[in-house]
Amino acid sequence: MRRALRVLLAVVAVLALLVVGFLAWAHSVMQGERPAALEAWRDEAVAITSHEVGIVIEPVEGGTGEGLVFIPGARVDPYAYLYKLSGMAEASGLTVVITKPTLNLAFFDQRPLSTFTALAPGVDEWYVGGHSLGGVRACQLAAPGASEPQPVGLMLFGSYCANDLAGSGLAALSLSGEHDGLSTPDKIAEAAGLLPDRTEFVELEGANHADFGDYGVQPGDGVSTRDDAELRDEIAELVAEFLAGASAARP
């Protein structure tokens, strides 16, 4: 009995250490770069509001009534996306809600899409999207019948789907980086058949995985050759063009 008790206590101790180690790892996020975030906060063309479950970026003028629920990459600070996504809101009139995932990992966040769309009640039509593993989770939420409200489209930033949306009829945009060392061009090409027929694919010249946010160097990534402000403008323009085309194509 004593031996069995010692074994049991050892197993419990090991499991406790694993849990503590995992929690410490999950909470060691890749922090957003302060100068980029401050530039977004100071941008008079958008209004940024932080809530418990997410961050809302709204255009001060020219709002279209369209919104995007954006899911961050694994262990990436949600605020690291303010600079790039505020450019999108300014250029297109899109309202963006950046989620604050459970344990900083999209796959542990099982809250419904309505948890985040409720932060912007003035939005009539919703897109869902995300960066890296956040985009994989967005694909799951975009599946027909998986969410309420049902998204009208999908936007992937350095990401790809693991579930089949080929017959969904959704409008979709896939932005990838030429030098992305994680969601590589080859991986995105291999998974392209899972995306809707109406998907627009754009590979951003010189961009890497971390270029879709502003959080510094990510292990395993390629080397970016892009100017950050220039890339922000290009992403904003591509999203605005995609939204205009998707809106015109809807009945």
Topology:
Blueprint: H1 2-26, H2 34-41, E1 46-50, E2 54-59, E3 66-71, H3 82-92, E4 95-99, H4 114-117, E5 125-131, H5 133-142, E6 153-157, E7 171-177, H6 185-190, E8 198-204, H7 228-249
Parallel strand pairs: 3-4, 3-5, 5-6, 6-7, 7-8
Antiparallel strand pairs: 1-2, 2-4
Kindly name the structural category.
Answer: alpha/beta
CATH superfamily of the largest domain: Alpha/Beta hydrolase fold, catalytic domain
Supply the CATH class of the largest domain.
Alpha Beta
Count of alpha and pi helical runs: 7
Helix content: 25-40%
> Could you give the count of β-strands?
8
* Shape summary: globular
CATH topology title of the largest domain: Rossmann fold
Lateral strand order in the biggest sheet: 1-2-4-3-5-6-7-8
Overall pLDDT? 91
The end-to-end distance, rounded to whole angstroms, is 72 Å
Verbal overview:
The longest helix is centred in the first third of the chain and has 25 residues, at 2-26. β7 (171-177), α6 (185-190) and β8 (198-204) form a beta-alpha-beta unit. The model is unreliable at 19-26 (pLDDT under 50). With 251 residues, the protein is of the alpha/beta class. It is globular, with a radius of gyration of 19 Å. The chain has two domains: 1-30; 31-249, 3-Layer(aba) Sandwich (Rossmann fold), CATH 3.40.50. The protein has seven helices and eight strands; from the N terminus they run ααβββαβαβαββαβα. The termini are far apart. α3 crosses α7 (228-249). The protein has helices spanning 2-26, 34-41, 82-92, 114-117, 133-142, 185-190, 228-249; strands at residues 46-50, 54-59, 66-71, 95-99, 125-131, 153-157, 171-177, 198-204. Strands 1-2-4-3-5-6-7-8 form an eight-stranded mixed sheet, sandwiched between helices.
